[in-house]
Amino acid sequence: MKEPPPLRKLTIVAKDPGLHLGGPEGPMAITQVAVPAEILAKGPTGYRIKVVDYNATERRAYLDQQDYQDPQGELVDPFACREGETLDDASYQDRLIRDPNFHAQNVYAIAMRTLGIFERALGRRVSWSSGGHQLHIAPHAFAQANAFYSKEDRALLFGYFFGAKGKPVYTCLSHDIIAHETTHALIDGLRSRYTEPSRPDQAAFHEGFADIIALLSIFSLKPVVAAAIGKDGSVLEGEQAIGLVAASKLDPDSIRSSILLGLAQEVGVALEGAERGALRQSVKMSPQEGQALRVSDDEHRRGEVIVAAMMNTFVELWSKRVATLGRFDGDRYNLGSVVEEGAKLAQHLLNIAIRALDYCPPCDIDFSQYLASMLTADREMVPEDEFHYRDTIRNQFAAFGVGLPDTGCDSEGCWTRYANPGGLVYARSNYAAMTRNRDEFFRFLWENREALGISQRAYTEVLSIDSASRVGPDGLMLHETICQYVQRVDIFGAEFKSVLGAERPAGMRTTDRVTAYGGGVVILDQYGQVKYHIANRVEDGKRQRERAEYLMENGQLAAREGPDRLHFSLLHREQMGG
What is the mean pLDDT of residues 273-302? Predict the structure, then answer.
């Protein structure tokens, strides 16, 4: 058998079956994407993704599956165009959409592509939260307008339903939904405590962040973006025809209305008709609407606040980059250059959004902390903000009611570096072991518990130690070790003030059981010195009281033990109107 190349191409639906290029009667957006090359078992099944095509509603397994190698061992794309076909052919596209094996390939390829985006941004392998090596994906899991990630099942489960005219709608064919659900699984691997009961921003963050990744990942598919924008004539330069696009299509309002910036067009239309359009189009939210949601208790829509802020950042920066390009007659731009600028910008913002997770506290996150983490992640890689990314991010988040944390930030809005790393005790810890062994790192925390503000009463656990190596635009390497720890203390209401430092909330009885959480992320530099300590402390009385009050109002004060298979299912059913 021949050794496979590093990458292979597989055919996918580029965004959504509801996105038709060039108008309602145009072709769907079908393309090929590069994923790691591997000798796939049937399913397809690889080293990180295992597609299990079982339909629980019909109690049916799809067993007639594709081969991904030919008899000579060459890697093949079984759904590539046959001789005489093109990606835009209606008969070819219809053949793909009707074939459940293509559905299986679609979820495999998009999930692997999303995983690759995370690993390139973070500079390391990313593990699934389940502890296993393979994430299971069921493309036809049940007959329901829903799709969700289940930690307990170690799986992404995609449903299907029938629209008003009896046409089947498969959530497994939406690039947006697949990337969104894969992102849930990846966040859970990186920050496993973000699904626990907390203040409303934490649950909303999971949803908002997943939407950001789903939307921005589309823009690296350049031919699809170019076709979705549409060509307005061309000009010859020698023997080369350069496609042009009218400037009127590229002002901020026109970009916000683009089909590229809405999520799950086909699902949204099938659920509520054409008047609804995309399932979510957060970029159209006004700052006033965002500020209203920011202080509301609707955690499901709350996540749209950070989506709106991030996507308006994208719109503003893309518009400015386009404005620097030269124009052709008729007030038109080079379409290829416009798309190239959008792709570069989307990749930069994806990197910022994903790398920020390393600088986020491991529990009880709020939007202001995520904002500070994004600014910090970008400054670490790009100290000089030449293109004003950080200024724009900070201003857009402020417009939607998300400010910076009250404490812990410098004048630029980044996390303050640890003030006296040399004052910590390193001598009793082995540095080499400390960067890979959780027991050794816990010893370092314990030896420095007073300086780091580690509660001695709480149960403390080191969750993970990860080494990251990233290359900045100047070619310089950034080496860091990211160490997460969490703390937990179980108390009665009578102990709230003495342990947590604040009066217990009104209505809390002395005999009520309360579980309080704290924790932090310690970032070590390449020399093993503490660079950042970003924490939500157990003894932060104001935060603990706010959290307890919110959980009491929502009947969630008692800690939810263990995985909850219905958590994302119920959340997504509400968002889809189910």
Answer: 72
Same domain, 116 and 226: no
Longest dimension (CA), the chain: 83
Cis peptide upstream of residue 44 (ω within 30 degrees of 0): yes
Q: What is the pLDDT of residue 258?
A: 83
**Per-residue pLDDT averaged across 150-160, rounded?**
93
Q: What is the dihedral of CA 123, 128, 132, 134, to 10 degrees?
A: -80
Q: What pLDDT, on the 0 to 100 scale, is given for residue 403? A: 95
Does 203 reside within a domain?
Answer: no
* Terminal-residue alpha carbon distance, the chain: 49
In angstroms, the CA 309 to CA 290 distance is 9
Residue 232 lies in a domain: yes
Q: Please check whether residues 439 and 480 belong to one and the same domain.
A: yes
Last residue within a domain, chosen from 313, 345, 362: 362
Smallest Cα–Cα separation from 15: which of 220, 256, 245, 183?
Answer: 220
Helices 335-355 & 389-399, crossing angle to 10 degrees?
70
Residue 300 lies in a domain: yes
**Residue 462: CA count within 13 A, CB half-sphere:** 19
In degrees and rounded to multiples of 5, residue 12 shows phi and psi of -140, 165
How far apart are alpha carbons 177 and 361 in whole angstroms?
Answer: 27
- Among residues 512, 530, 514, the alpha carbon closest in space to that of 522 is found at 530
Range of the structural domain that residue 299 is part of: 217-362
Helices (H), 483-566: 496-500, 541-553
Residues 33 and 77 in one domain: yes
Q: What CATH number is attached to the domain comprising 154?
A: 3.10.170
Query: Which string of DSSP letters, residue by residue, matches 508-545?
Result: --TT-EEEEEEEEEEEE-TTS-EEEEEEE-TT-HHHHH
Q: How far apart are CA 163 and CA 12, in angstroms?
A: 22
Q: Enter the tokens of residue 471.
A: 């290359």
> Could you tell me whether strands 147-150 and 60-61 are parallel, antiparallel, or unpaired per DSSP bridges?
unpaired
421-478: pLDDT as tens digits: 888 998 888 888 888 899 999 999 999 999 999 999 999 999 999 999 998 888 888 9
For residues 229 and 142, state if they share a domain.
no
Torsion angle defined by CA atoms of residues 332, 13, 216 and 291, in that order, rounded to the nearest 10 degrees? 100
If you search the block for the tokens 């390393």, which residue do you land on? 358
From 145, 175, 190, the end of a domain falls on 190
Distance (Å, rounded) from C-alpha 486 to C-alpha 463? 7
**Dihedral angle of Cα 454, 458, 464, 468, to the nearest 10 degrees:** -20
Spatial separation of the C-alpha atoms in residues 169 and 147, rounded to whole Å: 12
Residue type, 486: V
Torsion of CA 125, 130, 133, 136, to 10 degrees: -120
